[in-house]
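We were asked to recover a plausible sequence for a given structure. The inputs and outputs are reproduced exactly as logged, with field labels preserved.

PROBLEM: sequence recovery
POSITIONS: 326
GIVEN STRUCTURE:
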């Protein structure tokens, strides 16, 4: 009798269930966090209305929660506060402490604390929610274009919170549900790898851009085992030897050569910002090695002869909390 192919023990539906139970930040949690941040925004707007010359101009939702790509493990909210460039110090070591003092003026009696972190101010609320507030120097440009100040070099980096969110929204519109879900799976994979190896680096924005790059090239994202295999196989095959660039807000044909950088993944809003600019070759190699193991695990799971073996293979990708079907 000829061998009859059997369906894999771990399927798309198993990954959907795992995402619902472990990976995804649920809508009610998002709504609760956004409501608390909106209360901060309202208080700032009240302060600005009372003093139109105030140094802080506006607060905008930012980060993975605003983009719809956040993991269930997210413990804070990211916001950007646009500040008058003419009123704020330009040096990073002075900018964040200055912002802390302005936020203390606004949120006296509301926040349990306002403190300085490495690159942002941190507003701690009585609910336990932590809000990371990144200062953006604003000079009146359209589309809320402003400038971050690099903590490492002091260089000004152009940014636009609305354009970043619109960039992600276009990919979500082109692949409803699936683009964001594949991003979250890859972020979860990176989180699990970092738990085992603290030197492993796979930042959230990098994952969003990597999956967007593949989606723009026509990668099929609707079946999650195959989509994840596509992402990891691309990392292995390319080794990040090619630049990842986008044409949403600049022309990829007019970019300088990549030079000797081990990884080049350009910010879709500005080609002046290499999102992977601080990754060394050892970081790149860790990514490639981990992706190679993930590809091998997914392939092995597909042909596993027992459910237990297939689940153990997927645990190499998604971590020990993955148990297969409910």
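RECOVERED SEQUENCE:
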């Amino acid at each position: 009798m000829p061998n009859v192919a059997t369906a894999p023990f771990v399927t798309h539906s198993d990954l959907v269930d795992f995402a619902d139970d472990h990976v995804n930040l649920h809508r009610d949690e998002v709504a609760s966090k956004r409501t608390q941040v909106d209360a901060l925004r309202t208080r700032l707007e009240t302060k600005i209305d009372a003093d139109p010359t105030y140094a802080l101009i506006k607060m905008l939702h930012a980060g993975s929660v605003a983009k719809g790509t956040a993991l269930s493990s997210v413990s804070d909210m990211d916001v950007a506060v646009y500040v008058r460039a003419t009123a704020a110090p330009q040096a990073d070591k002075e900018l964040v402490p200055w912002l802390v003092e302005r936020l203390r003026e606004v949120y006296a009696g509301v926040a349990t604390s306002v403190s300085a972190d490495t690159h942002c101010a941190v507003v701690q609320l009585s609910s336990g929610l932590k809000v990371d507030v990144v200062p953006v120097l604003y000079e009146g440009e359209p589309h809320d274009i402003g400038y971050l100040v690099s903590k490492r070099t002091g260089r000004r980096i152009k940014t636009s919170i609305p354009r970043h969110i619109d960039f992600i929204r276009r990919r979500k519109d082109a692949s409803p549900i699936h683009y964001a879900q594949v991003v979250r799976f890859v972020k979860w994979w990176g989180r699990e790898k970092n738990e085992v190896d603290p030197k492993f680096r796979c930042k959230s924005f990098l994952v969003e851009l990597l999956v967007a790059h593949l989606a723009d090239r026509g990668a099929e994202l609707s079946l999650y085992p195959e989509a994840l295999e596509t992402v990891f196989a691309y990392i292995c095959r390319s080794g990040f030897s090619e630049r990842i660039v986008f044409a949403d807000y600049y022309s990829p044909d007019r970019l300088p050569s990549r030079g000797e950088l081990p990884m080049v993944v350009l910010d879709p809003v500005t080609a002046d910002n290499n999102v992977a600019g601080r990754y060394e070759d050892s970081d790149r190699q860790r990514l490639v090695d981990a992706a190679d193991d993930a590809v091998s695990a997914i392939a092995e799971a597909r042909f596993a002869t027992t459910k237990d073996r297939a689940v153990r293979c997927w645990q190499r990708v998604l971590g020990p909390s993955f148990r297969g079907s409910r």
